[in-house]
Write a structure and sequence with these properties.
Blueprint lengths: L11 H15 L6 E5 L12 E2 L9 E2 L3 E4 L13 E4 L4 E4 L11 E4 L4 E4 L2 E4 L9 E2 L10 E3 L7 H9 L4 E5 L3 E6 L4 E2 L10 E2 L2 H11 L3 E4 L7 H14 L2 E5 L10 H8 L1 E5 L3 E2 L5 E5 L2 E6 L3 H20 L8 E6 L3 E2 L5 E11 L2 E6 L7 H6 L2 E5 L5 E2 L4 E6 L3 H5 L1 E6 L3 H13 L4 E6 L2 H9 L5 E4 L11 H7 L5 E15 L10 H7 L5 E2 L4 H12 L13 E2 L2 H9 L5 E5 H6 L3 E15 H4 L2 H10 L2 H10 L2 E2 L6 E4 L10
Parallel strand pairs: 13-16, 13-17, 14-15, 17-21, 19-24, 22-25, 29-30, 33-34
Antiparallel strand pairs: 1-12, 2-11, 3-10, 4-6, 4-7, 5-9, 8-9, 18-20, 20-21, 22-28, 23-27, 24-25, 24-26, 26-28, 31-36, 32-35, 32-36, 32-37, 32-38
Helix pairs in contact: 3-6, 4-5, 9-17, 9-18
């Protein structure tokens, strides 16, 4: 049977409206109820109003430590006319929470009582009837509503239930959600992978999100890209669970069978959203079971799970989840969008000076690392084509606001030592995170000039003097208050396959033999170093095969060599060592940190300086290999007439 593909471009709100209308008509949103012990009810949704079954307190109780008295016997008490009361027949000693003794109607605080002799209490001011007495039902009265229907049970509610004599709750059952991973190339994470295999980890993300949203996720076995197998898995799951998520196969590719399988078993309501990434999502029904088809790419799949499955969980449990926190920020660079689709752009965030700065990161639909690094999402509406650099935008937060406010933003050259530096800071300051964006040294310099970063890793060679960094800082940041501090010296060289099977001797050898090379991006210090080498040796960059093949990190260069994309690339020794590759040393270069002065003198800046000069950092860097720490923490340059508070 030929595949039938209908991929639309429906706006998100309209897609949800259509789908929920069909779900309501079919009764798919109705969950059964169940009775649970109050102590097991945290996070559950009440299916009826919860009423107190008894008063709390259920007796007259003392609200203070002191003496219980009959107020009428204290009416004449004055400073000039103390009244003496006798134990047992005129007063009783009580503590907070004690039952009020019979015949008493007031409590006098212990601070207002003097004992001239044992068994005699002296007071100098009268008690008012029922002062410092907790009445019956002061907290809860029998039949009073403790919480309403469709209430998410919190920790404090549990105490109220027990105080009110409620020991079991009628709650909505948690939605049971089947997750069906599909794909012939998809393998369990623990498998021995071969070329072409892809690790199945989307289900772990979905499961965690569903658990947060109050559901019970169940991950089914991986199903191969075969129509009948997919239909069998969908039919079985739809007969068993409240909701079914089928992952991958929702697009319009040669082996995408989700649309056809659902259409043959039930109904496809929506296929294709006007969102980016995440267009090839599918919403349907089999019987009265909602079916959600999510794309295979991790970023697309996770985004669609958030915007489609989260509202479904809210509707089924008849309770809204806490709204996403939002924050205003200035976008660090012009962000273009194709228009016609709502686009979700991952960003990192940081308070730089007096403004919050949002820096877009990788927009690839399959890049899971971008989700790990992201602090929030910039949502570009369908009718906009993006935002200009510096424009104020609204960001939907992924991470906690308080954590973001203490982010250290680093934009510039990539080096493995920055990862170690971030770990050192985190060890002693758990609330501070080093957030890095790898744009190359020159990109970091420009970000510093635009006020978008706290610091930048740079290693910019001045070809005229052979020195590093100072001339660039003076040229491009003449009026900025900055500090240039050494982090490390590092070995740069040619990274090659282990054992150097091609016998590569250097850059000139690669040009002469037409061997494939992988480069770093324009503006990176490593790219500038390569151009310097080519110029020194009189070599034409166009003759270097792969000069235009770019990676943004040293590890990216190594991965390109491991995968066979290239035979060699300029990188640092530590990256070669970590990937078990060969290395031909060429240069030692100085790698510095360029810091904003206000950041340097802040608590976060001082935490960074402490880490730079710590034994922990030295130990970690030494273990990486290929570095010298002889000037680590040394201040090379300060501008703006600052007074130095810290120097390594």
């Amino acid at each position: 049977m030929a595949r039938r593909i209908y991929l639309e471009n429906i706006e998100l709100d309209e897609a949800l409206r259509r789908w929920f209308l069909r779900l309501e008509e079919s009764g798919a949103l109705l969950l059964q109820t169940e009775s649970v012990d109050v102590r097991d009810a945290l996070g559950r949704i009440t299916a009826e109003a919860v009423l107190a079954k008894r008063h709390s307190p259920h007796f007259l109780a003392s609200a203070m430590d002191g003496i219980a008295v009959k107020a009428e016997e204290t009416l004449l008490a004055r400073d000039t006319n103390p009244v003496l009361l006798h134990l047992t027949n005129q007063y009783h000693e009580v503590d907070t929470g004690d039952p009020l003794p019979e015949g008493c109607n007031a409590v006098i605080m212990s601070e207002e009582v003097h004992y001239p002799q044992k068994g005699v209490a002296e007071i100098v001011r009268p008690a008012i009837p029922w002062q410092h007495v907790r009445p019956v039902g002061e907290d809860l009265t029998a039949t009073e509503m403790i919480v309403p229907v469709n209430h998410r049970v919190g920790a404090y509610d549990l105490g109220g239930f027990l105080a009110g004599g409620v020991f079991r709750l009628l709650v909505r059952q948690r939605p049971r959600v089947a997750i069906i991973p599909t794909g012939t190339e998809i393998k369990k994470a623990e498998s021995n992978l071969k070329a072409g295999d892809l690790v199945e980890y989307n289900s772990a993300i979905f499961s965690a999100l569903l658990t947060e949203w109050g559901a019970i996720p169940v991950v089914e076995d991986i199903v191969e890209d075969e129509l009948e197998q997919i239909k069998q898995a969908l039919q079985k799951a739809s007969d068993t669970y409240d909701v079914v998520i089928i992952n991958a196969g929702s697009s319009a590719g040669r082996e995408d069978f989700t649309h056809q399988a659902i259409e043959e078993l039930g109904e496809v309501v929506v296929h294709g959203l006007a969102v980016k990434p995440g267009k090839p999502a599918l919403l349907g029904l089999i019987g009265n079971t909602p079916i959600v088809g999510l794309p295979g790419y991790p970023v697309s799949a996770t985004l669609d799970c958030e915007i489609l499955v989260r509202p479904l969980m809210e509707a089924m449990q008849q309770n809204l989840l806490p709204p996403k926190d939002k924050i205003k920020a200035h976008i660090s660079r012009t962000t273009n969008s194709s228009g016609g689709s709502k686009e979700y752009i991952r960003v990192t965030l940081g308070q730089v000076g007096n403004k919050m700065v949002a820096t877009p990161i990788s927009r690839g639909a399959g890049v899971i690392s971008s989700l790990i690094k992201a602090d929030g999402l910039l949502i570009v509406p369908e009718n906009l084509e993006g935002y200009s650099a510096g424009e104020e935008v609204e960001i939907e937060l992924i991470k906690e606001r308080n954590a973001i406010l203490r982010n250290i933003i680093s934009i510039g050259s990539h080096d493995l030592t920055q990862d170690q530096l971030g770990s050192c800071i985190r060890m002693h300051h758990p609330d501070i995170r080093l957030s890095s964006a790898n744009t190359g040294s020159f990109g970091g310099l420009m970000a510093m000039r635009r006020g978008e970063t706290h610091m930048a890793g740079i290693h910019l060679l001045d070809e005229e003097t052979g020195e590093y960094n100072e001339s660039y800082v003076k040229k491009y940041l003449p009026d900025e208050d900055i500090i240039l501090m050494n982090l490390v010296y590092r070995q740069q060289g040619l990274m090659v396959e282990k054992g150097n099977p091609h016998g590569i001797k250097g850059i000139k050898d690669m040009v002469n033999r037409k061997l494939s090379y992988v480069n770093r991006q324009k503006g990176s210090g490593t790219r500038i170093l390569l151009d310097h080498i080519l110029k020194q040796e009189g070599l034409d960059p166009d003759k270097l095969l792969g000069y235009d093949l770019e990676e943004y990190t040293h590890l990216g260069v190594g991965t390109a060599i491991l995968s066979g994309q290239a035979m060699a690339g300029l990188a640092v020794y530590s990256a070669a060592k970590s990937l078990d590759l060969g290395f031909l040393p060429l240069y030692e270069e100085r790698y510095d940190l360029l810091l904003r002065a206000d950041f340097f003198h802040s608590k976060e800046g001082q935490a960074l300086c402490e880490a730079v000069n710590s034994e922990d950092f030295a130990r970690r860097v030494t273990k990486l290999g290929g570095y010298s720490l002889r000037d680590t923490g040394k201040i090379w340059l300060m501008t703006g007439g600052q007074e130095l508070e810290h120097e390594g």
